[in-house]
């Protein structure tokens, strides 16, 4: 429920205007929370008539000055292009640098920039060591954002889940694979905590607590098998049989395989202990219960 997020947050200052580039899964949720706090929020999508598109942003179209006028906060949720360029900086860097009212510029990145730590914890002081091509591109975009000297905050995310994008969709379709790779863990975060943390971080930034990089993850990195088994129990579905990773990998897409090739746990101490963000869904257990309740409502 949006109220559960909003009640933990302070509103942004009056007359704030928040532009979100990339109103996808996370972008739309952040926009909803921002609007519920009373802020004017505009979200981009690439195609006309897409749900939730307040304006169009893509490689072909210029955006009007009107969109930018009075903007105080900007967030990019758009991944790097395949050539490594950042779509927003590519087209709008000059506009951003000339926006006199900008107080905060967020960039949603990925914890993939830390690379493989063989299951060890990573925090914001861990030197990034990206190995996958897309994570190398991502780390390069993070650096480009920081080099602008705008008031930039990089928000690194692990696997994102939430209503409509969780273990339940494949379980209900009967396509879940119980890939068994002993010792493998994944960190994750519920989309409501991304939205909550973004608005929380914006207010802290204004109060001078402004770390340039913050991991936003839940408390409980977990093996995928445990997550699926928990979801199956809630949905009263039988748990599919385990498939050893060495067999499962033969039919995995290169993208899926790349996730299984890295193993790390994401530490959220900076966000939750030092900065004081209270997670709405501290682990996949409460998060999945929320996803299931939304599934039943729809
Ligand atoms: N999904 C994960 O588990 C995960 C994990 C870690 C980090 N991340 C990163 O975190 C961010 C948010 O993730 P998400 O899953 O919420 O994203 P998402 O649902 O895939 O949304 C991405 C948004 O970016 C827009 N977009 C993509 N390429 C674009 C381009 N070249 N030009 C203009 N707009 C473009 C999309 O436009 P349309 O709305 O028109 O499609 C969409 O609004 C992304 O950068 C993602 O890569 C994701």
Question: How are the SSEs placed, and which strands pair?
Answer:
Blueprint: H1 2-6, E1 17-21, H2 25-36, E2 40-45, E3 55-56, H3 65-68, E4 73-76, H4 87-98, E5 104-110, E6 121-122, H5 133-147, E7 152-157, E8 159-161, H6 167-173, E9 178-180, E10 188-190, H7 191-206, E11 213-215, H8 224-235, E12 242-244, H9 245-248, H10 254-260, E13 265-266, H11 269-274, H12 284-297
Parallel strand pairs: 1-2, 1-4, 2-3, 4-5, 5-7, 6-13, 7-11, 8-10, 9-12
Any idea of the CATH topology?
Rossmann fold
Query: Order of strands across the widest beta sheet?
Result: 3-2-1-4-5-7-11
Overall mean pLDDT: 96
Helix-strand category: alpha/beta
Number of helices: 12
Question: In percent, how much strand structure appears in the residues?
Answer: 15-25%
Overview of the structural elements:
With 298 residues, the chain is α/β, with parallel strands linked by helices. It has a single domain, classed as NAD(P)-binding Rossmann-like Domain (Rossmann fold). Helices cover 38% and strands 16% of the residues. It contains 12 helices and 13 strands. The strands form 4 sheets. The chain has a 7-stranded parallel beta sheet, with helices on both faces. Helix 2 (25-36) links the parallel strand 1 and strand 2 (40-45). The longest helix is centred in the middle third of the chain and has 16 residues, at 191-206. The structure holds NADP nicotinamide-adenine-dinucleotide phosphate. Residues 22-27, 45-47, 50, 57-58, 77-79, 81, 87, 108, 110, 157, 159-160 line the site of NADP nicotinamide-adenine-dinucleotide phosphate. NADP nicotinamide-adenine-dinucleotide phosphate (NAP) binds at residues 22-27, 45-47, 50, 57-58, 77-79, 81, 87, 108, 110, 157, 159-160.
